[in-house]
């Protein structure tokens, strides 16, 4: 019998040693980079626990913004047997096949002029194919049905407030929202895709209206948002987290996956930016500087903050941030969905696994290689073992699951 056949959802942290979080940044088509890394992690988990192992079975919370929100939903949306709809490898294949249709490329001598006109007159893409394919694959699945807890940030432009769709949220107008509507909303990057409005029915005849755009304007790296949601549950004495103490960050085990950023010599300079008006901030160097600036600032500030906290607690090894800040040319775009560029991004994800582990320099903010830590691939192998052992420990301690037979290996943090 398959070693995970009798297991459904992960047991609560109260039966284990740590709280496990997976976070995925926003970044358009660059979501294929974390999808490639997750495919490797899932294969390592399958080596340990059998072919039925899935990413969602090992994390208490999976969080994602924009394209990361779509990956989150695909990892956690249930099928008819309440198992994840998709394996990690399926998500990489989804990006390769669907992105060229989500972001169709103009192929004509006047493409640059056409793109400029779109930037002035409306979003670059109408979003119709994205909306259709997301609704097709996620169907009528709701936030309260995911295989494990999820946290997906969006931003309400009517209220001018972040709206965090969290599985921990008791508000029925939130947890009854369709995953498809949440994914379309968190992916609605200004200038690229249209804002999304929808009604969430939370009782017969009762609805709540949302007017949402890309969660990246609030939290392009949603790691801290997810940690905040968990911390609130601990403060509110949720029995799933008893007897974990508030602010006991040593108990967190976090994997945070970036979607890459421009190489320093490809970024913008003040000599150019000082002359930009509205159009300059929207269309320069083949990109949208305004979007690049606020999404990168959001992601880096979160990484610096979490790095500082884990370092202060001497638990740096419990936090893994995988990010590539050497992208050049179209590699750093969010929408150049050509076959060549998508293939290049897959290669970047594969190469990133072979690169040394990095951590943010708290003075400069630049990610620097860490000596004697090994490669990202080696650390993910270590994390896979910890995740497998943590799950096994919870199964043994929980009165709600029948223990499965596995090697008796102690949990190591």
Looking at this protein, list some descriptive labels.
413 residues, alpha/beta, 14 helices, disordered C terminus
- Which series of helices and strands comes N to C? EHEHHHHEEHHEEHHEHHHEHEEH
Tell me the number of strands: 10
- The Rg value, from CA coordinates, equals 21 Å
Helix content: 25-40%
Overall structural class, as computed from helix and strand content, comes to alpha/beta
Count of helix runs: 14
Distance between the termini: 29 Å
Chain-averaged pLDDT: 88
Main sheet characteristics: 8 strands, mixed
Low-confidence stretches: 1-7, 403-413
Coarse shape: globular
Strand content: 5-15%
Helices and strands in order, then pairings?
Layout: E1 19-24, H1 32-49, E2 61-64, H2 67-76, H3 88-102, H4 111-121, H5 128-138, E3 149-156, E4 161-166, H6 172-175, H7 179-186, E5 196-203, E6 206-214, H8 216-219, H9 223-235, E7 252-257, H10 270-273, H11 278-282, H12 289-312, E8 319-322, H13 339-354, E9 358-360, E10 367-369, H14 376-397
Parallel strand pairs: 1-2, 1-7, 2-3, 7-8
Antiparallel strand pairs: 3-4, 3-6, 5-6, 9-10
